[in-house]
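Subject: Protein entry, chain in single-letter code together with its fold tokens

Area: Proteins and the way their chains fold up in space.

Attached in line: The record itself begins immediately under this heading.
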Amino acid sequence: MEYMRYFRNRKSYCKMFILLLLICGISSGINAQTSVQNPFQNLAQSPAQNPAYFKVESSKLSKDSILVGDHLLWSAVFKVPSDKRIAVAPYGEILKQDSVKLEVLKEIQLDTISIQSGISQLEAKLLLTSFDSGYYKLPQPLMIINGDTVYFDMPSVAVNPVQMDTATFKMYDIKGQINYPVTFKEVLPWILLGLLVIVIIYIVYRYIKYRREHKNFFGKPIVKDPPHIIALRELDKLRTQKLWQAGKEKQYYTGITDTLREYIEQRYDVSAMEKTSMEIMGSLTDKKMEAKPYNELNELFKLADLVKFAKYTPLEAENEDAIPIAVRFVNSTFMQELEQEVQQKQTKYGRPQRYDKPGQQEKQETTETQTKKKEEGK
């Protein structure tokens, strides 16, 4: 019986011991979890034990007292070896764990002042403000240098409310919008813009008007070469290019026929560029053209069509005669038109006197002038 009683008492003691161990483990786990979740807790009460290589030269505020809403700058100058790595925690997180009613406007920034003999002189700056009046001591910033936490002598600041004399204070209604007079400086850009628009409109109008009148921008008539001059110039250019000598017969005949088409279109007002060779020749039947240049032009167009569309290889003589035929056609049609204009003027103003010898007209005019002068002298 005594043995059984002793065994029961010993079993109950073991249970109590195990229970105590569980309670101790749970409490230590809770404390460890709390310390992990709040790394900034009780930072201000940490012992100010800095490593030997860290030296604080100054830690001060720009003002020892401010009004509600004013800015406050904390700056600290310290020295540290240049090879050390510095990590700074956000100061706003530290303020959240503290009862100091300050707000961060700009987080801590480090600036290098100088480097001498492997020692860097740095400056830390922090911009704060507060919207609650009171007297506050700035909590310690969390700055770690190569795994060592460093500490500063943090100052205090007084945040004062805006003083208001309630006895003499008088409320006023919100004023309406003030209309300031318009200045010349404000109107000048609009004046310049208006002048610019007027100038642009005038330039466009002048350009369109003079272009219709075949004049340049300054009102001078644009001298345009007559159609036969343009055609002869293009034909001479084709002759100097020596296309058929280089085996480019198709390009050679295309250039000749296109030049003649443009000449016919400008000379006779026929849309030659849009017609076939047969249609062009049909349009020229009523132009009172001589038979020889007309037939030569017809043969030239037929030869060009064979070269361009039937892959015909012309003879050397045909290639050599192509441009002279085109030149003769241009010259003959121009001379024919010139003669027609002379005949029209003779019909309109009467047939002028003919002068067979050179200089005969000048001699007769001189004689007539001398006769008039003698009659006037008498």
